[in-house]
Amino acid sequence: MPAHRFEGKTIFVTGGTSGLGRASCAQFIEEGGEVFIMDLEERSVLQHLGDKLKAHFYQGDVGKPEDCEAAINACVEKLGKLDILFHCAAQLSPMSTVPNHDLALFQQIINTNLCSLFYLARIAIPQMQKQGKGVIVVTGSTSAMAGEHGLPSYSASKAGMINLMRSMAIDHAQDNIRINAICPGYMRTAMTAGLGELAKVVEDSIPQGRGADPEEVARSVLFLASEDASFMTGHAMVVDGGWCAHSGAPDFLKLVPQQFRPDSTT
Description:
Elements: E1 10-14, H1 19-30, E2 34-39, H2 45-48, E3 55-59, H3 65-79, E4 84-87, H4 103-131, E5 134-139, H5 152-171, E6 177-184, H6 197-204, H7 214-225, E7 236-239, H8 252-255
Parallel strand pairs: 1-2, 1-4, 2-3, 4-5, 5-6, 6-7
Helix pairs in contact: 1-7, 3-4, 4-5
């Protein structure tokens, strides 16, 4: 039997119709929560979640502050409160260097991935303050933790999101509002399904040798959203199969013959 950590809780989820967002919605419902999903399209998500009566959809664009305000207000009006905000919506960037990057697209990605958190939080936090407590979980990325080839706009947006999260966390810790980030590495989703042979190259670079399933990353999202993480705020939790732990150096155990290793006894 699943735990019921979210019994009676209202969870507002952006980007909840696919990938990590959808997997998290299903697990929130399984543990007793009621989800209010904001996304660009419904994508039949309400038909695929466990308890359909505990899922609601609002069509909107997180890159538009007026949509964010309207969606959160609609959630509170319909469900009476806002206990948890899980901001998962994001836009990937094309592979490009800065000189070749389209300026309008750069601004769009920063707006969708970074500014959206500001738009949502400025409405959600006052509601949580009225209620006396609340939780915000944002989806960062391993791209926020270090530079990556060809992803300047995406990396910048996710790194900015992490520090915005930290600033909000310390500003509102005494309001009993916890704010943390989940930072996934490579996940096997519909978004990455078209990578073909590149997917194998990426997965071979991960110490655990595979990408994550959205369902296993979602378990970490639920941990951060639950009272199990009651003394955690301002934290960026990396869930990446050891990717960020790797310095990028080659595997010396494979490259250096045994007799030339410093620990060799021969």
